[in-house]
Amino acid sequence: MPHFRILNADPHSSARRGVIETAHGPVQTPAFMPVGTAGAVKGILPSLLQETGTQIILANTYHLMLRPGVEAVERIGGLHRLMAWDRPILTDSGGYQVFSLSSLTRIDDEGVEFSSHIDGARAHLNAEIAIDIQSRLGADIIMCFDECTALPADPTRLETATRRTIEWAKRCKAAHRAISDCGFRIADSSRGVNPQSEIRNPQSNRLLFGIVQGGTDLELRRRCAEQIVEIGFDGYAIGGLSVGEGHGNMVRTVEFTAPLLPADHPRYLMGVGMPVDILAAVRAGVDMFDCVLPTRNGRNAFAFTEQGPLRLRNSVHGDSTEPVESGCDCYSCRHFTRGAIRHFFNSGEMLGPILLSLHNLRFYQRLMSNIREHIERGDFATWAAGQMDQYAWTDNQ
Amino acid sequence: MPHFRILNADPHSSARRGVIETAHGPVQTPAFMPVGTAGAVKGILPSLLQETGTQIILANTYHLMLRPGVEAVERIGGLHRLMAWDRPILTDSGGYQVFSLSSLTRIDDEGVEFSSHIDGARAHLNAEIAIDIQSRLGADIIMCFDECTALPADPTRLETATRRTIEWAKRCKAAHRAISDCGFRIADSSRGVNPQSEIRNPQSNRLLFGIVQGGTDLELRRRCAEQIVEIGFDGYAIGGLSVGEGHGNMVRTVEFTAPLLPADHPRYLMGVGMPVDILAAVRAGVDMFDCVLPTRNGRNAFAFTEQGPLRLRNSVHGDSTEPVESGCDCYSCRHFTRGAIRHFFNSGEMLGPILLSLHNLRFYQRLMSNIREHIERGDFATWAAGQMDQYAWTDNQ
Questions:
Q1: I need a surface site. Which of A123, A192, B75, B114 has the fewest CB within 10 A?
Q2: Tens-place pLDDT, residues B339-370
Q3: Interface probe with A: pick from B313, B347, B354, B357, most Cβ of A within 10 Å
Q4: How confident is the model at residue A204 (pLDDT cuts 50, 70, 90)?
Q5: Which residues does B136 contact at the CB level (< 8 Å), separation at least 6?
Q6: What is the ipTM, given to two decimal places?
Q7: Which of residues 347-376 of A touch B (CB under 8 A)?
Q8: Is A271 in contact with A242 (CB distance < 8 Å)?
């Protein structure tokens, strides 16, 4: 059975409605992945996360390798057991965080050495280590180790990063194949791995996604895409966007790059984004997204609603008996008033961040559900255009 | 219908199994009330709180009067609406926090003036104001305004506090009667109170509890109890304990005071305590308890278990695939390993405090459920003696 099937294609855009089969079940696409940085979507219990419509979570290899460490995750029984999440998990490769969070001490064609942002401990990451760690965490979808460059970037810097991303992708594929062929890793028994987690996460069923870099340089994107596709992966990601280039450049780059990736494989736009970004990328043929915005903004008292953003610290909400978003079926909106949520934020009560994270996650998952429904109906293009006008505010935040 | 019925009395101790009828439904006693300081049991969504077996919450008048303020709570629709909790709520009078948290600027027979611990704002509290605020919050059980003295205390200080507590109790009863007789308060319409909350919280159905003070001075306790009982209340609390006197003095005082309170009314031991304290007090005939321990300790990585305390930051739990407490049916124990919870605490993830608060609340509610069951069976005294040996550790924490 192929791991990706397209169920419907929108007649008036490149949007598609599909399903990815993983070791922990299917993912209906287009899909949005909440970010569970260190093994938890901040403040959200897994049953409530499921209630938002979340099908798949992204977890960060960089954070988990530093704390609690891959050996500890293995001994606990794998990342699914740690997170109490028995549905699909995608792990990133650690590349993005190495370049954005840590103090780099060496970067060359071999890989990177860096100091942990937590305690300064030295660590090493390269293509083989990134694949090994993600396999041992038990991820359903594994990402290639890549070099992500902040934009705007010096052309030589961007070119070097893109070249390395391609070389590392080849090594990642070889490493992934070696691990998949073993079935059980040689070192397993000595590490005391819980056999349960291995049975539930058959190595051979883990998908490996390649990543296309190249900033907003379309020629570089084309060359990188061609070579990544030639190596051959289970899915293809567009990386290195949402790093300072702005909505227009992002959309232009996605619209250029997505068609260069095989139509019969899932396409994943990493780290994006606002609702308007997601709508534009789905229209260009992208199937998967991840972003910290619903949870991070939720923790900062910012709520997404169809009527525009709401800042719950604002005193106008002090006496409000309305829910955050009228008609919303999320836990927060079913139970709590804006007035109560504002009070929780003002009093430093954890319920404030929890309730708005839940609402924002439900807002995002409802958006994805609507996107899937409109692609099925064949009226996505028109509907999305209307939605993008409505969400124009989201670009000004 | 009387608001308190005794269903079973233990043949070998003073323990009783009863039910208190409130405007928001019944409370099976002996009962434990988690503390929802500022309108939220910290980090715990109401549906999960209900799942722990919680029947009634305590909320703090002092915190709510300062933030968001009683007018704001009224405009939101009352405390039940603010908290999204449609079961019983007991509010304290604010006295305890005024004396422990704020900067007192005046205390005399009239009442107290103090500066808010939040922003230094001047505020005024006395018997009439405390009853007015609690009524306006919509509490099902209202506590008399009292003066609570830290122990050990100077005898004159203790005597004055006890005398004031009695005088204030008389004024509280009069204020409560005045409000109950009005039905709707005169000022309601101008405050824009949500009529829904009034209908759900009929004023006439609010219970008023008197409080006995007197420190560990048994003669003072006797005099205070006699006079408070003479005034006549819907229930009687033993206040001023768990303030530094130690387990032995606490139990001695409770065993002396409880029989002085009418057997056909609920008895409430305020701010207590550890499992061993609760067992001893139930044996002495106490029906209700509140304490921050399950939630505060949970936030500090301390778990209650039948096998003794667990400190989840301890590195021995790093690789543990066990639940916090084997056989426990709480959300945490059903889903998460000790290793995962330790990792959440080490990483500053909110899920750590949330999961251990949930576990500890379930531990306390299971204890109460067991207490009720053993009183029903008539073997409470023997069972409790065994439990108190088992929980001896809890006195050394």
A1: A192
A2: 999 999 999 999 999 999 999 999 999 999 99
A3: B347
A4: low
A5: B70, B73, B74, B185
A6: 0.94
A7: 347, 349-351, 353-355
A8: yes
